[in-house]
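ok so I'm stuck.
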Amino acid sequence: MSDAPTADGPTADAPTAGPPGARPGALPFFVYGTLRTGGRNHAVHLAGRCADIRPAVLEGAALHDGPGFPYAVPDGTPGRRILGELITVRPGGYAAALAALDRLEDCRADGTGEYVRERLAVRTVSGSTEDAWVYLAGPAVAARLRVHPALIPSGDWTRRTER
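replied:
not stuck anymore, here's the structure
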């Protein structure tokens, strides 16, 4: 279900995603928390690097509150979804953005980090489905959240106080 998360980026055979001129294999990122437009990590890691930002939804996942940032956890409960943005990074900044986001999310090649990066389908507001890199809670965090959930029912980090 996922490509191996590495600092080197997606596999070379990944399809082109995003606007014309995007680098082949450069998947957009689905962001749902502090990396969204206006979030503190967007300003640090993505501002000025984006070619396109569109509202999007990740179906089949639940959003959980963390210590100042959220976690996405796969969840087959009907209606579970996470609201976020599909961000296409400018081709010249893609490798640096990918490496910076992997570091920020503690995404490790062996899958033991706080997050794992997986290639998943997300739905845009136009109704189309696109593959994107999604940072999901890593195995230890996901296991903890399944036992002690911190569910954000709206699936929207910007509305997390509306429980």
